[in-house]
Amino acid sequence: MENNDLLSSERVKSSRCPSGLNFRASADNTGFKTPPPAGGCGNRVQSLPASSAGRRGLLWGKNPLLQKLKEWRKIAAKQENVALFRVLPNRTLENIARLKPATKEDLLTIKGIKEKKFEKYGKDILALINKGQEKLVRRSFNEGGQEFSVRDLQEKVNEKPISVSKYLNSLNSQLRQQKARIQGEISSLDIRENVIYFSLKDREDESVLNCLIWKRDYQFSGIIFEVGMEIILEGYAEVYKLNGRLSFKASVAELVGEGALKKAYDQLKNKLEAEGLFAPERKKPIPEFPQKIGLVTSETGEVIHDFLTNLGRYGYQIKFMDSRVEGQAAVRDLLSAIDYFDGKDIDVLVIIRGGGSLESLQAFNNETLVRRIAGFAAPVICGIGHERDVPLASLAADLMVSTPTAAAVILNKSWGKALDRIKILEQDIIYRYQRALTDKNHQLERSAAELREVADFIFEKFRDIKQRLDNKLAMIAYGLEGTKKTINRFRDMLLINFQKKKDWLVDYLGKAQERLRIVNPMRQLKLGYSIASAKGKIVRSVQQVQRGDEVDILVSDGRIKSQVNNISNK
After folding, report:
1. CATH 1.10.150.80 is held by the domain 64-159
2. Do 282 and 276 meet the contact criterion of CB atoms below 8 Å apart?
3. HSE on the CB side for 323, CA within 13 Å?
4. Stated pTM of the model
5. Which of 111, 181, 245, 570 has the smallest number of CB atoms closer than 10 Å to its CB?
6. What is the mean pLDDT for each group of 10 consecutive residues in the chain (570 residues)?
7. CATH classification of 13-50+277-402 is 3.40.50, yes or no?
8. What is the pairing mode between strands 22-25 and 13-16?
9. What is the fold, at CATH topology level, of the domain defined by 178-256?
């Protein structure tokens, strides 16, 4: 897959590599994408936000409006001293170039453009779209609450004179676009609390330029200014409105010449060495089997491709931070990248770049950067090529290697050993399995023979037992036959006795019935007798009743209720 293959979506995409493995790249929050390097498939690579100065070499296609929007954003970001995505992210610029909104309402429908953004940038964007301006500087001054662009101001100039303040604002806006690198000798120096004022003199014709650099940028440069020192500055000119004085505002300072660079290198090396910053005992060990890797390098060039190509396919999760790595100007990018990874869930931080001269490696000899690497929480591997002098960043790192490829080899080392060990164990397991299988096969054959012997014995015993059982069953059958005859004989005798008993019982019951019939009281009643009862008792004597008692007399066909009127004895 070539470097100019862009992933157009901000969502994480997956593209098929020639080897058949998936390479994953994700867009950062600005919309920049990182193309997969050739041969670097097999590990997951995630591109993370980088500083605006470190994003370059990206393809934007052939859309002219998109190119204009890009140039406009670059100017706006420089004026505000912010990263490009702080102005507008790539996705928003792409949508603007595609939809070409003609009005404020149209522009506000695009994701990433709200009222506040429109107030700051809307007029310039619509001017680029509707008027086709090739160059447009974002509004940089304000008058009575109304902001003007340079084009607006130029139109107003044709109408009527403008104020000095407006003119200087316009002039400074254009000067900011003329960023330059200049070289000269420091002829005067005034170091103050937050800013350093100095003059830069041309050695040939004694031309002098007033300069200033903010203290933060001065510290980032890692140079101690001295009168007579020759340096290179990067920045732009600006007119100070209160006195009309032109000054060059430097953002980066570099030493000139190998001699000066070598002297500064040796001084800083001795200083940091005396502090114990390079001592072996303070270095953290590189963890075995690292998976989560923070990678800092330039996304352009062969370095990142060499690193990813030589990185084994061990399921690495690589978080990539794009950064400039050339010259003193790269310090800010490198610090921003390291700060991003500080506190992140990574096993190791890898900083790599190709070989170069002492001058091109100035950023890696910067004191602030060296201290930041030495104090980083996770182990740091520096794979920085060099000619003679080892970069101080490499000396401060927990592990120093001479090339990006060597850094990949170090990361692969524990995984490779583990893989070799696994292969040895695999062969050992196969050997042990085969040996165990052979042993078990022999045991199985012996057991089968023993089992056959036991089975034969069991079958023989079974036949013997069966024969004995058949004999017993025959004897039982004979005994059962005799028992059956006996039972039948007893059954016949029982039936005969039962019939006799039955006949006797029937005769006995008939005689008993006749006797009961004879003594039945009802029979006596039919013969004219009656039964008298008083107070629920049969009256057998006159003593049982008194005059006036009611007497119940039972006769054969009913009852008679009577009352005792008279009682007489015999």
Report:
1. yes
2. yes
3. 29
4. 0.47
5. 570
6. 30 31 34 38 55 36 79 84 84 88 85 85 86 45 45 55 89 89 90 92 88 89 85 91 92 79 83 90 91 90 86 88 82 89 92 82 86 93 80 91 90 88 91 91 90 89 90 89 88 89 90 82 77 86 86 86 84
7. yes
8. antiparallel
9. OB fold (Dihydrolipoamide Acetyltransferase, E2P) (2.40.50)
